[in-house]
């Protein structure tokens, strides 16, 4: 396995319930390092741009509208096998179908209001991370540990 980065977003429904710290505790206990993080409110234009890969799907309007409805917490997570491991930690898109112990099972209400978003592959992770963060806003834990030896 190799150290990877993945994108994570705590969505407006979870932010409205003040769950970001609780969700981040679970993420960190699962072995992820949060190497970048920012709270932001996406405009409708930016929300449409973020989800443009879904623009031809019937749920596109509902998706961008919801993500622009309140603050989100955008994050970059790092660990071995980060993308697959975070997908597993999130659980199924539909919270009713998500496995016990997953973020969506614990905090999600519906398919749309399912508390968290995560990248589904390396190309998506790269695109989503660069949408929110520059390289200057991230760091690599390995670099820090090596520099401080």
Summarize the structure.
This protein has 149 residues and is of the alpha+beta class.
Characterization of this structure:
- This protein is α+β, with helices and mostly antiparallel strands.
- Helix content is 42%, strand content 19%.
- It is built from 8 helices and 4 strands.
- The chain has a 4-stranded antiparallel β-sheet with strand order 2-3-1-4, sandwiched between helices.
- Helix 3 (44-50) packs across helix 4 (60-67).
- The model has no long low-confidence stretch (mean pLDDT 93).
**Domain tally:** 1
Count of DSSP helices?
A: 8
CATH topology: Alpha-Beta Plaits
CATH class: Alpha Beta
Stretches where pLDDT falls below 50 for ≥5 residues? none
- Multimerization state: single chain
The general outline is globular
Name the helicity range.
Answer: 40-55%
In CATH, what is the homologous superfamily?
Nucleoside diphosphate kinase-like domain
Q: Which CATH-level-2 architecture?
A: 2-Layer Sandwich
Major β-sheet strand ordering: 2-3-1-4
**Percentage of residues in strands:** 15-25%
- Residue-averaged pLDDT: 93
Radius of gyration: 15 Å
In terms of topology, how is this protein built?
Elements: E1 3-10, H1 12-16, H2 20-29, E2 33-40, H3 44-50, H4 60-67, E3 72-80, H5 82-90, H6 103-107, E4 116-118, H7 122-132, H8 141-147
Antiparallel strand pairs: 1-3, 1-4, 2-3
Structural descriptors:
42% helix; Alpha-Beta Plaits; 19% strand; 8 helices; 149 residues; alpha+beta; four-stranded antiparallel β-sheet
